[in-house]
Amino acid sequence: MKKNLRSGQSFHNKQQVKDAHLGSCLQLLTSFILFQTILLRTIMKPNTIIITIWLAAFELTAVLSLQCGQPAIKPQTSRIVGGRDAIPYSWPWQVAVYEKRGRLIKFACGATIISDQWLLSAGHCFHNKAHVNGYLFYMGTFLRYEKQALAIQSSEVHVHPLFNMKTMEYDVALIKLKRKIPFSNKVLPVCLPSVRNYYPPVNATAFVTGWGRTTESYGSMRLQQVDVTIIEAKKCKSMYHSLFGPINTDLMFCAGHENGGKDSCQGDSGGPLVLYDPETDKWF
């Protein structure tokens, strides 16, 4: 599992981005990014995160102060061997992404609710796709498809401009929906990482959710969850390189189990990897 965290070039000597109240600093950075047409070559300080700056460029600063990351239905967090069915609706930020093909729709990826009109997903799920109206985003669903699920089309899809299909660096996309999401007990946003927890601690437990493959050929019909462990960067580089080639741990981190047996699978792409913060009682 890989997540993008920060950029490859520095632009500092500015006041650090604050956790709750971003104020004039963030406005300055937002203006700078917009002026530079969102070519994200900014900020490499360790207590700032590139995704926050990118969100700011799309006027999403309010996402940091939302009531987020507190599911009404508590998830099962005990660790088990392999994955398991999630408790229905206990991960309310989970989204199922469907691609429209004529009169048919096909399950494509996962995504994560981060505000009342924006989703976060993987860039490769939308890379080189023909049109932004060709997707439906299902929310408030435990089964991969439920008739009563909330379904909204996208109005904008923004794949990170530095996304590299070969290295999978900057593999992130922002999706703006055609209308705002009516939050409920089944549909809520997750929190974004703060200054304090911008990089998950080594050996921390995270949870991955999605409808990816289990023992079934075409993926699970019920939402699955699996616990994974955050792996130290040096070990991550060594393990990943032996299987797939070099990895830039300045832009990604590894989560999984050294002995195997637990992982996200095809179909989980773009979905959330979340950690629980006991100090705030929130998931991010």
Give a concise summary.
This protein has 284 residues and is an alpha+beta fold.
Written overview of the protein:
With 284 residues, the protein is of the alpha+beta class. Among the domains are: 94-177, Thrombin, subunit H (Beta Barrel), CATH 2.40.10.10; 196-278, Trypsin-like serine proteases (Thrombin, subunit H), CATH 2.40.10. The chain is 11% helix and 24% strand. The chain is built from three helices and 13 strands; from the N terminus they run H-H-E-E-E-E-E-E-E-E-E-H-E-E-E-E. The chain has helices at residues 23-35, 50-57, 233-243; strands at residues 84-85, 94-101, 104-113, 118-121, 135-139, 150-159, 173-177, 205-210, 224-231, 254-256, 273-274, 276-277, 282-283. It has a six-stranded antiparallel barrel with strand order 2-3-4-7-6-5. A hairpin with a 4-residue loop joins strand 12 (276-277) and strand 13. Helix 1 crosses helix 2. It is globular, with a radius of gyration of 18 Å. The protein starts with 22 loop residues before the first helix and ends with a strand. One of its GO terms (cellular component) is extracellular region. It comes from Trichinella nativa. One of its GO terms (molecular function) is serine-type endopeptidase activity. Keywords: Disulfide bond, Glycoprotein, Hydrolase, Membrane, Protease, Secreted, Serine protease, Signal, Transmembrane, Transmembrane helix. This is Plasminogen-like protein.
Attribute tags:
284 residues; alpha+beta; Thrombin, subunit H; 6-stranded antiparallel beta barrel; 5-stranded antiparallel beta sheet; 3 helices; 13 strands; 24% strand; globular; secreted; hydrolase; signal; TRYPSIN_SER
